[in-house]
Design a protein that fits this description.
about 425 residues, alpha/beta, TIM Barrel, Immunoglobulin-like, Alpha-amylase, Glyco_hydro_b, Bac_A_amyl_C, GH13_cat_dom
Length: about 425
């Protein structure tokens, strides 16, 4: 694990933005206009999907994927200029938030500046045409990292350039790149900005096996923690989906979360994301508001750094199209912003980053606790509509700090309602 990783990252909240889809103007200025609202949610880090020009060759859709990058140093004119980007960074910093940007170094578009200047840097089919190693991403071609050292130097210079402006990197499919590249990159970037936050988009367990079976390297989360501060929770994501789809139990999903505690370094930090630009909206998966509120509260209570994908706070069910113009359908009537604001304030309690983390009851309910000395933070998320549960609490009334309502424990039993419960005992 990156030895300098701060435990305080577990108190932070991330807000993911697809600039093209976020506002009617589809640009950085549209984000600036929304920053006060974003800040009010308790957000600490604003994370932007790639904002570089998109390649035209074999482009998917009419606009293309932001992950098919033409030039790492340039900004897509749709979003604005470099000065517009600097203005966005300034406005984010003035609100005491940080900015994280997407780094896509596994591949470029097939007509990128680099494929034109250095075609020898890229993976090719036997017929000499550009290609990617796995999958059907027809709009991109992969770097051949192991054959050309010059790739490393070029891409590290890209990181050093953007590190002048931003506070963190989210690195796309980072486990498919050489781990030694990331180690060297972190050391050299720290000479420019020693306080960068490094987030790896780790990959699903099955995909790691698939890549390795094809003869390529794919690194596990445990290995990625040698360099990165935070990793995606794709190692448990499928178990959550299986629970929501009725294919597996809540207990199995919670067991996989518990397994993380024994698998990763002691100070590991997971990104707790229930939806993103690659995954369906949690509101779509869950289907009803009562359970959605329980799941949202659980997302924030899990140990780690929660990430909201813009629109999640309005219970949006449609994931924005990656290849077309598809604005987020903001709907204040469906807002759960007040809930997220309260959850963010609870997330910032010291006990959530410094306390020990316990799975108390995982039989048809999620009952988790943090302990710090004589202090306890108790979270009970009634995802299966139970009427009551047994708890190790003295009989009496307890304040739910999420709703400011009292709940009574009688004869060691807590009556449940259709709302998440968080008790803070000191």
């Amino acid at each position: 694990m990156a030895k300098q990783t701060s435990h305080e990252l577990k108190n932070k909240v991330v807000y993911q933005i697809f600039t093209r889809q976020h506002s009617k103007t589809s640009d950085f200025k549209g984000i600036i206009e929304d920053l006060d609202r974003i800040k009010s949610l308790g957000v600490d880090i604003v994370y932007l999907l790639p904002f570089h020009p998109i390649g035209e060759k074999d482009r998917k859709g009419s606009i293309g994927s932001p992950y098919a990058i033409y030039d790492y140093y340039a900004i897509d004119p749709l979003y604005g200029t470099l000065e517009d980007f600097k203005a966005l960074v300034k406005e984010i910093h003035q609100r005491d938030m940080k900015i994280m940007i997407d780094i896509v170094f596994n591949h470029t578009s097939r007509d990128s500046i680099l494929t034109q200047k250095h075609p020898e840097w890229f993976y090719k089919k036997p017929d000499g045409s550009f290609a990617n190693r796995v999958g059907d991403w027809s709009d991109i071609t992969d770097f051949d990292f192991l054959s050309h050292r010059a790739i490393w130097d070029y891409l590290i210079d890209v990181l050093k350039y953007w590190a002048q402006f931003v506070d963190g990197f989210r690195c796309d499919v980072a486990p498919l790149l050489p781990l030694d590249f990331w180690k060297e990159a972190r050391v050299k970037v720290e000479q420019v900005n020693p306080n960068m936050i490094w987030l790896t988009e780790s990959v699903h367990l099955g995909f790691i096996k698939y890549i390795r079976d094809m003869g390529y390297d794919a690194f596990s989360d445990s290995q990625m923690y040698e360099v990165f501060d935070v990793a995606y929770d794709y190692d448990v994501f499928d178990f959550m989906d299986d629970y929501l789809n009725g294919k597996d139990t809540l207990k199995r999903y919670l067991f996989e979360l518990w397994r993380q505690e024994a698998t990763y370094p002691k100070n590991f930090v997971k990104l707790r994301s229930f939806e993103n630009h690659d995954q369906d909206r949690i509101a779509h998966k869950v289907g009803n508001k009562t359970k959605l509120i329980q799941m949202t509260a659980l997302q924030f209570f899990l140990k780690g750094m929660p990430m909201i994908y813009a629109g999640q706070e309005h219970q949006v069910t449609k994931r924005p199209d990656l290849f077309e113009m598809d604005l987020v359908p903001w709907n204040k009537d469906e807002s759960i912003e007040d809930l997220i604001t309260k959850l963010s304030s609870i997330k910032k309690l010291d006990i959530m980053s410094k306390g020990t983390y316990h799975f108390v009851n995982t039989d048809s309910i999620a009952h988790l606790e943090y302990h710090l000395g004589n202090e306890k933070l108790i979270g009970i998320f009634n995802l299966e509509n139970l009427s009551s549960i047994k708890v190790d609490l003295t009989d009496g009334k307890y304040l739910n700090i999420l709703t400011n309502k009292l709940h009574e424990v009688k004869n060691g039993s807590l009556q449940l309602r259709n709302e998440p419960i968080i008790f803070h005992l000191k």
